[in-house]
Amino acid sequence: MNFDYNEEQQLLADSVRRYLQKDYGFEARRKILASPEGWSAQVWSQLAALGLTGLPFSPEYGGFGGGAVDLMGVMEAFGEALVVEPYLATLMGAQLVARAGSAQQKRTILPAVVEGRMKLAFAHTEGKEGEKLGVVGAPLADKLVVSCGNALFLAERADVKMKPYRTMDNMVAADLIFSREKAAPMPGAAQAIEQTIDFATALVCAEAVGAMKFACDTTLEYLKTRRQFGVPIGSFQALQHRMVDMVISYEQARSMACLACSRVDQALDAAARSRAVSAAKIKIADSARHIGQEAVQLHGGMGMSEELKVSHSFRRLTVAAQQFGDADHHLERFASL
Amino acid sequence: MDLNYSAEELAFRDEVRAWLGANLPKDLKEKVDRYAHLSKEDLLRWHRILAGKGWVAPAWPKEWGGTGWNLVQRYIFEEELGYAGAPPLIPFGLAMCAPVLLRFGTEAQKKRFLPRIYQGEDFWCQGYSEPGSGSDLASLKTKAVRKNDQYVVNGQKIWTTLAHYADWIFCLVRTDPTSEKPQEGISFLLIDMKTPGVSVRPLILMDGAHEVNEVFFDDVAVPAENLVHEEGKGWTVAKYLLGYERMNTGRIGESKRQLARLKEFSSGKFNDVRFRDRLSRVEVELAALEITNLRFLDRMRRTGQPPGADVSMLKIKGTEIQQALAELMMQAAGPAGGDEFAAALGRRYLSMRKTTIYAGSNEIQRNIIAKMTLGL
To answer: Per-residue pLDDT averaged across B131-139, rounded?
Structure first.
């Protein structure tokens, strides 16, 4: 039993956190959001230089062969900094290629992803016939992995019609229309989809936990510095107890993120893995909503402001709560497994 | 990161589980399963079985009967007791008075009291709360006046759990009414319940059970040798006990057992999605608390630091889960209560409301976290 990151994992998480503190502060992020592209190529090449784009892929393709626990500290740091680059989207696409792609597809795509030369996205949520909705990272992706029922296809971005937009939490995304004529089939499928979505869900749990940590830290700081009635508002018991409940909510969520990441790496069977992931997502969704809403409330009017990072963390937490299924969805799946 | 117990830890768990399976008397387990009242004899019988095995006080130093188990083993043992459905070990002697004596007691006090606590020869209770001093414990008024080699005690304690079973009570009393701060001038005194002037009056709670009492002290003469630590240092003793390693505060094993039972007898209600989802949320919360608890334990093991306000977090979440489970059980069994089992679950629901109030109400626990962990 051991709940710490090993030395390598800790070193990686620390160096990612240091980099983000230095180059991905709130002002730097604001500039990225204001740019027409909505992401930073420079940041992306730094992530690649840190080895992050290769972390979960086989050394055969230049990667490090890491698992979800290896990525957990990275995702927590991303959550704290509210990184908007399409990292998870790319990892998902590449995981699907690694699990379901042909040898040829793996050889052309995975090394390019590892080296930071290629970005991917995974189009899964169905709209009307041929439509795929809410595909995070699609406008930035070089290639798209698209699911059709239990089958998977690989498409060039240029061959897909899309309507790009920014999500509530400022990610670049698109709805798209896909036709399989121009797409290349991938040999594997159904199992790879489930596995990859569980993997990504565990990582979103970790990312949300990072955003919760930021929301808790910044709210605590605010309670200690904001003065009303001649005293810091943190001296009021009504607010202290709500702050305590936020921190408890965070600790409970973090425990479940640990569980999800560990089981994704180690579970004996798919049902045990999916059950742990769903349990985690239920807790993370509840905690994300609780902590996000309370962080805004305890900041008062300032919590509503675009100018404070806390409102951005609220938006990220709101989306994270629903990403890959909200609490209701996972309650249904948890009960069925 | 590895969330699994090691092979040695699993072997230890299996050993404990097997022994409990073979040595927990059937009739006691059956009473626990029915949520029936446990008599003093029931409690002591189980205490003595564990004492006979050498397992009744694992956390004590080895020279006094401790097992020498590490933190994780002790945690596993306590959780297995809960999971097996064993009668509770009453903490007042084993886990409260004894650690105080081990830390602050004289050699004579240790020799006199510890072996009797270990063997279950003395039944202890705790004299802290008073009618005017609940959460604000330091305002307590029970007076102890030193006269030669005795203290003369006058006053009243309340909510005294199992005082009607007890041979001894450890009390916080005021020895110096003139001290500037209320925390000063309090002393820690051991009082024989058979001393003339001690009287016990039952307080019946809403579930009909006689568990707590009022205890009155009317010119009770207590030998001065029963003072623990220095006169006026009682608050230090009380605070030590608050920070004492109580890593089973979350009662994970016990709640896991209740969850399993609830699932068993409420399976007919699983088509009711509303009920099912409420049950799932409690299950998830319990899974999270188990990992949170182990994370704290792991940190304690690494740093050697006492748990501090972590215990408060476990208390808050643990009791919320216990209450949620008791409520779902009551609801699953139905409100009529004509059936004896359903009636017992109804009474249990009523009784479990105490958990967020006792041992430092959950609001006081939040105050502790706000102050100690968050610096508010």
So the answer is: 95
